[in-house]
Amino acid sequence: MGSSTKHIFITGGVTSSLGKGIIAASLAKLLQSRGISVTIQKFDPYLNIDPGTLNPYEHGECFVTEDGAETDLDLGHYERFLNTETSQDNNVTTGRIYNNVITKERKGEYLGKTVQVIPHITDEIKKNFYKLGETGKYEVVITEIGGCVGDIESLPFVEAVRQARWDLGSNNILVIHLTLIPYLAAAKELKTKPTQHSVKQLLEAGVQPDILVCRTEKHLPMDVKKKIALFCNVQLNCVIEAMDADSIYDVPLLMKKEKLDERVMTKLKLTSKSNTELEQWKEFLGKLKNPTQEVEIGLVGKYVSLPDAYKSIIESFTHAGASLECKVNLTLISSEEINADNVQKKLGELDGIVVAPGFGERGLVGKVEAVKYARENNIPFFGICLGLQIAVIEFARNVMGLKSASSTEMDPETEYPVIFLMEGQKNLTQLGGTMRLGSYPCELTKNTKASVAYSKPKISERHRHRYEFNNKYLKEFEKHGMVASGKNPEGGLVEIMEIKDHPWFLGTQFHPEYKSTVLNPHPLFVRFIKAAIDEKQQK
Q1: Contact at 8 Å (CB) between 260 and 213?
Q2: CA-to-CA separations, 516 to 53, 250, 312, 531, in angstroms, rounded
Q3: In the annotation, is 319 catalytic?
Q4: Residue of 385, 468, 495, 502 marked active site
Q5: What letter does residue 118 receive in the DSSP assignment?
Q6: How far apart, in whole angstroms, are the C-alpha atoms of residue 173 and residue 181?
């Protein structure tokens, strides 16, 4: 191992969804505030090559990176916390590991050898562990291992971590185990046994955690901490309490208070280069917790029973709201429950309406009704990806009189295909990883809502779609007052549509939510919230 990068591995035990991603992002933020260059990667133990074909109910939203990788939603947290971009290399699945190994086997790279989990799969995992570190850009690489210790599927990852300690040497590697200390109300007691079992499973796999981060709803008394340290074989000051927080953005400061970053620095023999003391972060938190006004926003979509399906959008509203010292009360509304008869009742109290991205026909009628309601009642409207396409369909039907206008995705035989399949998508046989993905440039038209929001002529945004606006109809749309305020300079693809004589009505073919971070809230979200505040004041 020629590289001098230090590696931190974060595993999880007892139960999933304890927040490994947030702990990883928080620790990275604290190291970053000490002037250390750091990145985070996530290894997912499922066999899909990437989460691009997964239903959001299976795995939450699919996050898209600048270079067009469809990745786990935790990468969104990494970018939002660190304000730095991730890439294809920051998310690796078991599927990708096996795919790489089998491809090599077919090419004859292991000629004469029996290809096995150890060493071939574990070597491929380790190669991917070290890849980002070998670029020379990072002093610390944090690797989050998805799933739960003890799951069959995460065994090869844990074994690779065990071997990594041997490869890297003890001053260059650290294992943090995130676990749960449940509180039994009937016994009025915090229980450490699940954590003991979880650490024991790690030890059986040959991995001794250096630091335990204990998720808990009650403070851990000293005797409980001592018991955990004794039975789990870690130092007392390396048992870190992680209380449930009001906001995920509180976690870095809570971890700082618990001295998580100090323990890590000591064990890895790192020295601080600067100490920015997280000033901007604290300023953001101050605004987030002390809003001077509030607005009611409705998010209309079809995956509303799982908020994680819209994670980036929800967080973008947090960032934009805080920048305006405004509390955004976001209500998720199922598009399947909206119709012409109840739309006033469902949306009447809102100061702004968002129609969310998605695929397929389910909930189409409700989305069209929501757009129509926003347009006719001058309520600020923001359509994202499919949300833009619905806005175009609604406008064509109800303003331009093209009653049967639709998207060929929903109605392949439509008479007026105002949205249709992109040229490059027509003869595809594979669904995975073949959409228009990643960052593309967009030129803005002067004196439009979009150009005012961005206050620059050229932008670049991330995409994830197969269908696009049909330029054959553009003149007709513009004649009726819906204009293309953003276009891709190369192919002329319409990226942004807006209605001129409406307080704020705008739809984007791209996903602005992928680029919003704590320190750089996205201008379109900020403008939309501002419009909602104005709307509320006029009421």
Answers
A1: yes
A2: 24, 18, 8, 18
A3: no
A4: 385
A5: I
A6: 25
